[in-house]
Amino acid sequence: AGLSRGPELRSGHQVGSPDADDLGLDARRKASPVAEGWRAPRDLPRHPSRILVAEDEHLVAADLVFTLADLGYTVVGPATDGLIATQLAHRALPDLALLDIQMPKKDGLSVAEQVYRELAIPAVLLSAYCDAAHLEAANRAGVYGYLVKPVAQQQLKVAIEVAWHRYCEHMSSLAESEDLRKRLEVRRLVEQAKWLLVGNQKM
Largest Cα–Cα distance of the chain, in whole Å? Predict the structure, then answer.
């Protein structure tokens, strides 16, 4: 069983409370181009600051919370199962999610895929195993890092920062692709208009 207390941000705001709007979450929901599957690179900070923790083992969750706080991150959670993790992600919109693979109600892989698809939140997975099956399963949309428990403080910090860097690069690539698509579409429309204009002049 995990921690029974309600999820809190280290800043003192409880996730989902009226004060949560002071964090600018509503504005971020409107600004984040989730429907397009990416977040504008200009809106991404150089380093993640708010980390969602989802771990059903009480001692492991507590250790992660204290370690992340010691590293200077604001902790959202911990969530004690995958369903709560998904709900917290929608309510608090963290920068990144740290998810245990095996959780009640919804496993970490499913949570990672959903919050990435719906909210463009990247994930780092935690597991007690490092076999080929788990690694292959982790190579899915939204998973940018994989850690084997127990995790040392510096390992955690490096994994989070590397995952964030990979995520930002991916978002930049998607933005460039979208920009190229729009420019090609404009060019196509211009050429089509020119062709129609030439055809009318010949008539």
Answer: 81
Over its C-alpha atoms, the chain yields an Rg (Å, rounded) of 21
How many CA atoms within 13 Å lie on the side-chain side of 86?
A: 18
Q: How far apart are CA 120 and CA 22, in angstroms?
A: 22
Number of H helices, E strands in the chain: 6, 5
Contact 13, 19 (CB under 8 A): yes
Cβ contact 67:53 at 8 Å: no
The tokens describing 64, both together, are 């992660």
How do the pLDDT tens digits run along the chain, 203 residues long? 333 333 333 333 334 333 333 333 333 333 334 444 455 555 777 899 999 999 999 999 999 999 999 999 999 999 999 999 999 999 999 999 999 998 999 998 899 989 988 888 999 999 887 666 666 666 666 689 989 888 999 999 999 999 999 988 888 877 776 665 666 666 667 766 766 776 666 65
